[in-house]
Amino acid sequence: MRNKSSITSFRINPPSEIMNEPVEIKKVDRGNIEDFLNLIGGLARFEHDNPPDDAAKRRLVSDALAENPPFNAFLAYLKGRPIGYIIYYNTYSSFDGKRILFLEDIFVLEDERKTGLGKHLFKFCIEEAKGQGCGSMEWWVLTWNKDAIGFHERMGGKRRGCYVYEVDEKDFEKALRS
pTM for the complete prediction? Predict the structure, then answer.
């Protein structure tokens, strides 16, 4: 079983009648790392969040370009213009005794949404999960993002009965003192 994708680049025919040009999907590398960072900034703006600061960008670059990266990242290009990306990595299910492919980000620029590109990126992740022998694929959707909720439910996603909690690094010490 593999941990990381062996795929570096592929083309998909126009994802729909709306998009009449082929889309190229490329693994993040030294040649497109700036496009990657810019798209992450686009997702942050869409989610009304802060984009990565300079230190976070340095870590993203270092991790993305590492010999054994902690995540897989792919960019989608239309006519040479970056229009979307995905990041995924593996976790593990103690109940199934199998890997889980966790889809951290799937993002398509607003003017390219509803073209079928998101569906192709999502299906690419499903194929990766199957190829890795994963027992499932998981992801989070913000509760206010009704378009994404509809998309994921149409793709067969089901909401599970649990809440997502986090302790971020600002609160690590507080948690340790509790």
Answer: 0.84
